[in-house]
Amino acid sequence: MRLEYTAEQLEAIAHDIRVDVIESLHCAGSGHPGGSLSIAEIMSVLYFHEMNLDPANPNWEERDRFVLSKGHAAPAYYAALAERGYFSKELLKTLRQIDSPLQGHPDRKKAVGVDMSTGSLGQGISAAAGMACFAKRSSKDFRVYCVLGDGEMQEGEVWEALMAAAHYKLSNFTVLLDNNNLQIDGQVRDVMSVYPIREKVEAFGWKVLEAGGHDVKALCSALKKARENTETPTFIICKTVKGKGVSFMENQAGWHGAAVTDENYETAMKELNA
Fold first, then answer.
1. Please, is 235 exposed, middle or buried when counting C-beta atoms within 10 Å of its C-beta (0-12, 13-18, 19+)?
2. Burial 177-203 (b: 16+ CB within 10 A, else e)
3. Tally of CB atoms within 10 A around 239
4. What's the sign of the alpha-carbon dihedral 224, 229, 232, 237?
5. Against a cut of 0.90, is the pTM above it?
């Protein structure tokens, strides 16, 4: 079932996702804060407004599918699943621990609600395209959503997936780009520029939209346009801030993957709960 939360409710869920991310990463003592915090609104809108899901029946054949291609942002993914009711929020405190279903990257064989194991950059969008292709060829009504990283676009496999999805006219496929402009080694444009993104993706045959990645109303509007597009797959460039919501993490490449210490935790939680 699709939920239709208000903008205020979606913003509140995004806030809770950020709190969950910091909590779980602090317990883990390692992980990826920056790119998890930057997709909180995207995950909130997908799981509480856009996608047709049933947490009580996670393997329902008609459910919409979601693939986190930038698998290192798993803390935000797990937080969204917990908020939506797939499992207890207490489980988030076991992130990255031995025998926990919530590993550092999503594992569909362990974590309830995960549709695809990801982590090797570029493979997630390829798998998502395959799911959308299956749905089209099988006359299934479900849609497929994929969150992609901008640094991840340096992988050649991403462009193969874009080409294939356009060729097969996968109008049931929507990609949301977490365009925070940073990757582990610094600015995306300095490491290996993928710009101009819009023109390149349009040249591959996609409908391209742009939206503020922290503006829930803009995200809802863009996703509605994607559903209404029956000719091509849709690519939404979401302008985001890496580390959004925690001042000392914002726009800092060093927080791509770093431990949340006790001091970091206290400061971050004070800011988030202010």
1. buried
2. bbbbbbbeeeebeeeeebeebeebbee
3. 16
4. negative
5. yes
The two structure tokens encoding residue 220: 């809802």
Q: What is the pLDDT of residues 173-206, one digit of tens each?
A: 999 999 999 999 999 999 999 999 999 999 999 9
How many angstroms separate the CA atoms of 125 and 68, rounded? 8
Check whether the bond before 196 is cis (ω within 30° of 0): yes
128-164 pLDDT, tens digit each: 999 999 999 999 999 999 999 999 999 999 999 999 9
**Structure tokens, 15:** 């806030």
Contact 17, 74 (CB under 8 A): no
β-bridge partners, 179: 239
**Inter-residue contact 150 to 179 (CB < 8 Å):** yes
Give the position of tokens 């914002």: 250
